[in-house]
Amino acid sequence: MPIGGNNTEPHKKRSNKKRTLKQTSKSKRRITEKNEAKNSKKMLVMNVLSDATLENDRIEQYKELRRQRYSEARQQAIETIVEKMKKTTYYPREINDDLTR
Predict the structure, then answer these.
(1) Is the distance from CB of 88 to CB of 80 less than 8 angstroms?
(2) 46-56 tens-digit pLDDT
(3) Is residue 19 part of a domain?
């Protein structure tokens, strides 16, 4: 555009076409459903109970489930790393067998 503000190019007109709704694939829907389920488990402040003892029990149960999820995720990450190492690194047979135990 020239400095004077006179633009010699014609303006583009907007299309009157209606945009179609983007459809999500099944895998994306499944991932979203899993995340929603996890989010409902993670929400500590949901369903707060008025009874102090029941509320403490609920919090303890929440913490236990959280620890379990974290340990499962950590174990899965370790297994993934070991599998990647097996593919990229040469190990003698004895060491390779020890890693799988």
Answers:
(1) no
(2) 777 788 888 88
(3) no
Q: Domain range holding 54?
A: 47-100
Place of tokens 């390779």: 96
Find where tokens 């008025």 sit.
50
DSSP state letter for 4: T
pTM to 2 decimal places: 0.40
Q: E strand or H helix at 66, and its extent?
A: helix 52-88
The total number of structural domains in the chain stands at 1
HSE toward the beta carbon, residue 18, CA cutoff 13 A: 2
Q: CA 23, CA 3: separation in Å to the nearest integer?
A: 44
Q: Are 46 and 52 in contact (CB under 8 A)?
A: no
